[in-house]
Design brief:
Blueprint (H helix, E strand, L loop, with lengths): L10 H24 L9 H8 L12 H11 L22 H13 L11 H16 L7 E5 L2 H21 L3 H4 L8 E6 L5 H8 L7 E4 L9 H13 L3 E8 L11 H10 L3 E6 L23 E5 L11 E5 L18 H5 L18 H35 L4 E3 L8 E6 L9 H15 L5 E5 L2 E7 L7 H18 L1
Parallel strand pairs: 2-3, 2-4, 4-5, 5-6
Antiparallel strand pairs: 1-7, 6-7, 8-9, 9-11, 10-11
Helix pairs in contact: 1-3, 4-12, 6-8
The chain binds pyridoxal-5'-phosphate.
Length: 489
């Protein structure tokens, strides 16, 4: 292609862009008719072959049309169809149309949020959105935040700041300058056993090791057991250990259970421990007037993780880390002469790199902004409440069927963990049966469910996010599961 056709700088470039976008829109338009199943069911070895069918690059390029056709016939055809009503596995949402359209603009503008001179007003717009979010979550006047790649990065940031703040307060120790303090191995993080695995992963990356994470048992509703937590805290202190952070989970990945936030905040305050709330999943309830009360106490957190590429229906990736006292961002600040010199900050220029662990960073805020403008908070509430209602119905449906057993018969969010337990099936083989069913549904491409382990036995999981999913989809999957036993046993 001619140089002038390759960039938006020239009218020829714009003409090409328009043509290419139209081809992509045509491809996406085809999904309306073609989508019968959530997955082609391709086997892993064939998938590997398909992915390598065409060379990555040759000396001269080929037409966009031809390249797109190759992608359609190899990758797109064999993708997991997240928009399909029977894709019910993970916290993986169909993206909102206004967000998808905004994403085009995000890419075309190609701003970078690290410095003012790569973003302009977009940096102020990100701050505006963060002000709105911290206000919604009730974090107070001193709060701040940053957009992140998602819950993993947000959880990491929460524990990073908690670690550094603890070392500063206790030993007047500067981790940024000096690395970990001599007694770092005594530093402990507490969370429930149902907390996200990124708590442990963060601890290991923060130099504290997974050994620093003490997991607390959950009660029968899969919420952290407060009695056990307080007992463990006392025991740790008696042994001279230094608990410095509690991670509350507001929406566990498997069960959607919400830890008792006000009680955790009370304990954290009493022991002067940082409270980080992982609301990657449950944070979206803030937009639902029916369900917002479940988040009571979140405003008492020192930091909060929220994911927008889950129940806020944003295209990946889009998340935020919110901080009750934005001064704590100083713990990770670094001034680079070329990017964010101190004199610029004194002059009031927002160089957001100071609050992030990333440097170059997308203007993902725009997707969320356009979605909130176009859909409105009530529109979001209808989506979230609808998914929760279907999850409640599903759990009840399973409870009323002797062949199934739900582990969380009263889901707080939209995930239902269950097991198929046909009458007379040998108990020790039930886990294996559910494992096989999961595989088989995926291989046939009829439904994409998740599987997880409960007490060492494989269980199935519906994670309901898609507003297009209905009772008939759940019934269809359950009948497929039942047919499996009838056919094979
Ligand atoms: C999804 C999830 C995460 C991880 O978030 P990513 O956006 O995948 O990085 C962390 N915690 C919880 C509770 C989650 O559900």
């Amino acid at each position: 292609m001619d140089k002038k056709s390759l960039f938006l700088t020239h009218p020829e470039g714009f003409q090409q862009y328009k043509k290419m976008c139209m081809e992509i829109i045509r491809l996406i338009g085809g999904w309306q008719e073609e989508i019968q199943k959530p997955f082609s069911g391709i086997a892993a070895e064939d998938s590997l072959k398909e992915s390598r069918r065409h060379p990555i690059a040759e000396k001269e390029g080929i037409s966009f049309e031809k390249a797109l056709k190759e992608v359609k016939d190899t990758i797109e055809k064999n993708r997991i169809k997240v928009e399909h009503p029977r894709t019910l596995a993970h916290l993986h949402c169909p993206p909102l149309v206004p967000a998808l359209a905004a994403d085009m603009l995000v890419s075309a503008m190609n701003l970078s949020m690290d410095s003012w001179d790569q973003s302009g007003t977009a940096s102020h717009a990100e701050e505006y959105m963060l002000d709105w979010l911290t206000e919604r979550y009730g974090l107070g006047e001193e709060a701040g935040g940053t957009f992140t790649s998602g819950g993993t990065q947000s959880n990491y940031m929460g524990l990073l700041l908690a670690r550094d703040e603890f070392c500063r307060r206790r030993w007047n120790w500067n981790v940024q300058q000096n690395g970990l303090p001599p007694h770092f191995s005594k530093m402990k993080i507490l969370c429930s056993e149902a907390a996200h695995f990124t708590v442990k992963k963060s601890a290991s990356q923060l130099g504290l090791g997974e050994q620093s994470v003490v997991t607390v048992p959950v009660d029968d509703r899969k919420k952290i057991d407060m009695g056990r937590l307080e007992k463990i805290l006392r025991q740790l202190k008696e042994k001279g250990e230094l608990p410095f952070a509690i991670v509350a989970t507001c929406g566990t990945t498997d069960f959607g259970s919400i830890d008792p936030l006000p009680e955790l905040a009370r304990v954290a305050r009493e022991h002067q421990i940082w409270l980080h709330t992982d609301a990657a999943y449950g944070g979206a309830l803030i937009l639902s007037s029916l369900q917002r009360n479940k988040l009571e106490g979140i405003e008492l957190s020192d930091s909060v993780t929220v994911d927008f590429h889950k129940l806020f229906y944003q295209p990946i990736s889009c998340g935020a880390f919110l901080l009750k006292n934005k001064q704590h961002f100083r713990l990770i600040q670094h001034h680079a002469d070329y990017l964010n010199p101190e004199e610029d900050e004194a002059a009031g220029l927002p160089h957001l790199v100071g609050k992030s662990i990333q440097t170059t960073r997308r203007f993902d805020v725009l997707k969320l902004y356009m979605s909130l403008r176009v859909v409105g908070t009530e529109g979001f509430a209808r989506l979230i409440d609808g998914a929760a209602e279907l999850a409640g119905w599903t759990a009840e449906r399973l409870e009323n069927d002797p062949d199934f057993k739900a582990v969380n018969p009263k889901p707080e969010l939209t995930a239902v963990v269950f097991q198929y337990r046909p009458e007379g099936y040998p108990e020790e083989q039930v886990g294996g049966l559910n494992y096989t069913i999961h595989q088989s549904l995926l291989n046939e491409g009829d439904a994409v469910l998740a599987k997880t382990q409960v007490q060492g036995s494989t269980h199935l999981k519906f994670t309901i996010l898609n507003p297009a999913s209905g009772k008939e989809d759940i019934e269809y999957v359950l009948s497929k599961i039942k047919a499996f036993r009838e056919g094979k046993a």
